[in-house]
Each structure stands twice: as C-alpha cells, then as structure tokens.
Amino acid sequence: MPFAPAAVAGVSAVAGLAGSYMQSQAVGDAADKANSAQMRGLEQSRADLAPWRDAGGAAIPAVQNAAGLNGQPGYDAAMAAFHTSPGYQFQLDQGLRAIDAGAASKGILNSGATLKAEQTFGTGLADKEFTDYYNRLFNLSELGQKSAAGSASMTADAAKGIAQTDLSEGSALSSIYGNAAKGVSDSVNNYMNNSLYADRTNALMGGYGKLGGNY
C-alpha cells in the first residue's frame, strides 16, 4: 500500500490557509464594528453639544460689541440690545412707576425733582444691569467655548481609539498570516522529510522502490 505524503501535505496546507482566511475575516469584521461604534458615539456626542456650542458662538459678536472691540458702531449696537433686553426694561418700568407713584402722592409728579429722580434711577440701573448683561453674554460665549473644546477632545479620543483598533487589527493579521506561512512551510518540510520515508516503505512493501534494488 503506497503512501501519499504529497496529498496529506496539500490537505494540511489548504486547511491551514482556509483557517487563516476565516480568522482574518473575523478580525477585520471586529475592527470594523469597533470603529463604527466609536464613530457613532462621537457623532452622538457632538450632536448633543451642538446647541450649546452654537449658542455660545452666536454670543461672541455681542460680547465683542459690548467690550468695545468693534468700535463705536458695535458699542452702539450693544447698548441698543441692552436697553431693549427684557430684564432691563422690566426693572426700569417698575422703578419709574414707583418714583412716579411717590411723586404723585406728594403732588409733584411733573416737577424737576421727579424728573431728576427718574434720571438718577435710570443711570444707576443701567450701570448695574449692563455689567450683569455683559457677564451673562460672556458666560454664554464661554459655555460655547467649553462645548467646542469638549467636541475637539472627543474627536481626538475617537481618532486615537480608531488608530489603536487599526493597529491591533494589523498586529492580529500579521500574526495570522505569519502562522499561515509557517503552516505551509511546515507542511512542505513534512512532505520533503516524509518522502524518503515513503519511498523506503513502498520499496519494502512492493519489492522495488525509488531506492532501486530488490528487497
């Protein structure tokens, strides 16, 4: 009964390559899923921060106007926005009504003293409220800056995670391909080593082999 070392070696090599292919496919699929999950997480996080980032960005021109960075036109626009803001208007109206009511009770509603009291109140309120108004705008712009920084940080983290996943995939594939190559090499070596053994065995069992002569 002759041996078939070449067939055995071929089957072993093919089986090893098939197994390596399936392993590489599994590694690639896992890496793709991991990267997709990281991208979905990044997109969701950026979407969650977008309203705060956009609101903060919209407040920057107003902060610049109020700080006088855009010249007199910008400052005038800031004061106009401030004087029409709901919080300032409400307090101004309430304060002037209180002054007028007190003056009316004394019969001096239309007097110079009442007018001066109204002007003094308006000026003091404007000084106080404008600082608060500016601080609210600045805090809003700062919130936008922090949201933008958070988005940038998450983007960097996602990129780092994807790069790490790709490196891990490359390392795993390198190991798989190396093992596959070694398996093929081992099969060839086994075939070469077993060929002489098979020739001798066939010669013994058949009476004549590649070695020549009768046994």
What would you say about this model in short?
With 215 residues, the protein is mainly alpha-helical.
Task: Give keywords.
4 helices, mainly alpha, 215 residues, single chain
How is this structure best described in words?
7% of the residues are buried. The chain has 215 residues and is mostly helical. The longest helix has 95 residues, at 112-206. The protein has helices spanning 5-66, 71-83, 86-106, 112-206. It has one domain (5-190). Helix 1 (5-66) runs antiparallel to helix 4 (112-206). Mean pLDDT is 75; it is low at 208-215.
How helix-rich are the residues, as a percent range? Answer: over 70%
Unreliable spans: 208-215
Structural class comes to mainly alpha
Number of strands: 0
Domain tally: 1
Tell me the distance between the termini: 16 Å
What would the principal axes of the Cα set say about the shape? Answer: rod-shaped
Hey, roughly how much beta strand do the residues contain?
A: under 5%
The SSE string, one letter per element, is: HHHH
Counted by DSSP, the helix tally is 4
What average pLDDT do the residues reach? Answer: 75
Describe how the helices and strands are arranged:
Layout lengths: L4 H62 L4 H13 L2 H21 L5 H95 L9
Helix pairs in contact: 1-2, 1-4, 3-4
